[in-house]
Design a protein that fits this description.
The chain is an alpha/beta fold. The protein has a single domain, classed as 3-Layer(aba) Sandwich (Rossmann fold), CATH 3.40.50. It contains five helices and four strands. The chain has a four-stranded parallel sheet, sandwiched between helices. Helix 2 packs parallel to helix 3. The chain is globular. The two termini are 18 Å apart. The structure holds 5-nitro-6-ribityl-amino-2,4(1H,3H)-pyrimidinedione (INI).
Length: 159
Amino acid sequence: MTVFEGRFTDVGGLRIAVVVARFNDLVTSRLLSGCLDCLARHGVDTGDASGQLDVAWVPGSFEIPLVAQRLAASGRYHVVVTLGAVIRGDTPHFDVVVAEVSKGVASVARDTGVPVIFGVLTTDTLQQALERAGIKSNLGWSYGLQALEMGSLMAALPR
Ligand code: INI
């Protein structure tokens, strides 16, 4: 019996792309900090020249799937992390943005075979989003762990 599992150590060979939305930057920049902190503490070289980690900023969560698609299809990355915050608040098109980004991210993963971590918070209020981005815990950290696990798992599976 072979058991396939992702790993959280010896991740020096993993190349990771992060797509992060500027909309609700107060929240998404905290998610990004948490994610980068997690990756660095697990041995990912986050330095400019390493080529191991790249970050792409997009205007809002709606734009995440297009850029995730380009990065995943490039063949350069083992995993793509998406970070955004869609807050219901007074926004009438909350449901449109959430539907597009969630379905889009799932399609990118299936179409390219590259795992895409869904790190888009969907909350009713800014307070709830901030609680998940550092006030209580920082889900960016969890998304970093999930990226390591899925990137290394997919690399280990038979083609
Ligand atoms: N983008 C978000 O990432 N979060 C939101 O809460 C949001 N709201 O509420 O509108 C949002 N809108 C912008 C959208 O993602 C696109 O950037 C914009 O429509 C241009 O295509």
